[in-house]
Amino acid sequence: MTELHITRARDIIHAATEPTPERPHPERTALVEARGALLHWDILNRDPHPTAEIHDPDLAADWLWDIYGPETAAAILDTTGPVTTQWASPVLDAARRLAHLRWAEAWWPSSHAAAVPALNIGLLRAEAAWRTAGIEHLLDDDQAVERALADTDLTALEALADDPARHELAAALEDLADDYGVELRRRPAQLSREDWALAASGHHPVDFALASGGTLVDWAQVPQGLVDAAAGATWTLTQRESGLAVTVTVPAAPEARDLDLTARIATVEIPLRLDPDTGHFTGEAEAPQTFLLLPANQRELRVHSPDFVKHPTEPADAPHRAALIEYARTRLTDPVASLAERTA
Q: How many CB atoms lie within 10 A of CB 130?
């Protein structure tokens, strides 16, 4: 049973699974953009039903009952206060699974340090296309299924030759593509910025180091799957013959791509590139002689991808990061997890 708390504020109806209608941190949030509403789940919360933010009740009324049941949907639209629902339906299941697949594509915490493998983006997108078709009537995009199918690559499915679920999904997608007049690709997709992966660290001691430090990488500042999600970035200040130098090391995620990263500490900016031999992003830059005089709070390391965020922000708190990594681990052996997770 799920308890919902119905409130109204500035023409928005909130049906929240928590007493206060606040969204969870982005790295914990699985979303579906529906007609007239936004549905979101906190992936660390096992409630099957989402929180709904309804901005157009007339549009939402057409499908809301599929998610919460007829009686609860009517209460959401007409009343305030707590309501409960035990409603289960194929539409609710498909919506939750689609939201989770999109979360995994954006936030999956792949990590060598935490033994969390990268997910196959092709499998994620293939499954997402099938789930999209299951809730087409409630999505805020008339071309959602066509777009999802156009983004689907059967190469990833064909690689799982002995998996029965692979055959079922491939056949279902081919039938779906025929119905919508879309030709499915059979070549690896070129991954876009949204396909990249999360962050981490490493430490390579340097002789004659004068100072050093480290920090976790803010997941919101780098593409998913780029840096190790469980490790952290480290920096070392070294006395070279030519002067002071700051070296930064960031462990790469499993199957990370060589994309540009930038580290900043105080006024020093350090370009980072992936070293395929070590599996780390590394870089070095000259530091001013005054660097050693800086207080500790002015020697905080920040890492971001310049192609992903144009204007890096101060790091937000990363609540439940360890819980997210543990959640990802459990999904690898969960029989109801996605095909991409179970075959990673």
A: 22
